[in-house]
Design brief:
heterodimer, A: about 270 residues, Rossmann fold, 4-stranded antiparallel β-sheet, 9 helices, 10 strands, globular, B: about 290 residues, mainly alpha, MetI-like fold, 12 helices, about 75% helix
Chain lengths: ~270, ~290
Amino acid sequence: MDNPASSPVLLVRDLSVSFFDRPVLRQVNLAVPAGGIAVLVGRSGSGKTTLLRAVNRLNDEVAGCRTEGTVELVTKRGRLNVFPGTGPDAVTLPELRRRVGMVFQTPQVFPASVFSNVAMPLAVAAGCPRSELEDRVRDALVRADLWHEVEGRLAMSAERLSGGQQQRLCLARALALEPDVLLLDEPTASLDVHAARRVEELLLELAGRLPVIMVSHGLSQSLRLASFLAVMEEGRVIRTVCDTSGMTEGDLERLLDGEEKPCDAQTMRGKTA
Amino acid sequence: MRRFSFLVFRALCTLCAVLVPCLVLVLMGYLFRRGLPELGLDLLFGRADPLDAVLGRVPVWDGLWPACVGTFWLVVLTVLLAVFPGVGCGIYLSELASPRQKRILGAAVDMLAGMPSIVMGLFGFMLILLLRRTVLPDANTGLLLAAGCLALLVLPVLTASAREAMAAVPDSLRLAAAACGFSRAQALFHLFLPAAARGILGGVVLAVGRAAEDTAVILFTGVVANAGLPSGLLGKFEALSFDIYYISSQYQDQQELLRGFGAATLLLVISCLLLAAARVLERGFRKKWQTKA
């Protein structure tokens, strides 16, 4: 595998994850370059979500999980030993998760008001002073392109927002904690086309400011968003693509099928590993 | 054939669904028809002046006011004694216990739930006998002992409801909380407990109802027919449930029987009021939690 980038944001070495002794990830090695959106693609059950959750160690919350190998993040604030989480570069799990924001496939709003959804993690988990809360909530909602839609309804239950708005609220909640990296697990899977496009635009805008790693099922969406692609199959990363310009859905489809030479130089100028 | 079985099954389910509200209506209708006309100041205070009776200046001998006050304090004390250990045990079982602890503690709670209330009463009575023979020769049955035994009786209800309410917190919320950087304790106090509050409160309401209606426990632990207002935590007391039992077994004439129906209606009204108060509390709490930062 050739080195995809000189300055990786995520380094995964020999990562194996199993649940109740059933292996889901097998000896994964991956270096995700900084900048842009890195997309993990693969068929259902290929281990994309498990790999994504290894970055903020959310797999640890699931019963029967066993992890081996190493996961490291290189962020603007320095090196972070994610797993095994020992040594001078390690942090506690709550701090790791504050520094690595995550948005799930279906919007996971808290059963509280719009304001509380963003303010509660800030106040409780990050210890943000009460006097700064209002400004930081507003700032996060503006960045998630939601402020003008909820400005007068901050006390309303977040569960009454539309699916697209809920997902942007989850994005605002993650952004409010000022993460070093943003993880997205098929963030548009439960949205209609219009709402999905809006979230995509937002992600492209955000990717200019912080590294984004996402899982996507949609081939066209992967091509629209990805500056780096990692193709997964049966718990392994079988291929990485550092430049997706010129790639077509057919090319990607062939990559997913594990064909050795998915495309020629004219249809795909990207380097594959 | 399969369709016929389904039709029969559906018909039976519908019948059951209709039967339950019908039975409730018949029961309430009968009770209210006999009891409602009896409700009034006379039923509560007899010949005593209501204001003086409420302020405790004059004793009430032929009204239900002392029994109402006794029941109120009995329920309040029971809830105060039982809520913390009951709900705490439920939360521990759901959130913190190892599988082995869950098995052992769960079995203990189930055993307690299956205990007949008369056994709880006897336990309280024996406890007093033991105390008299050992460290407290003056120990006697009273309000605190009755509330303590009732607390034991309602403990499994509170534990089971708290455990189920916490278990019903969706895994997705747990993952979302962890992903936001909440520690386990922070997530528990700020997200899971408020999310489970309705279920936990449901258990408290059930416990209140049980404490208000149970007669077997208090029969051995300090209730009497004519004690007046409870003199203190260790004093004898009257209770509506016991009054109903006493009147129905000892009544001399029709008038006295109707007084029993009046007492039953009063107990039902008090239970409904407690239920409504619990709902208002829960709504207020939910609103406050939802809008706070």
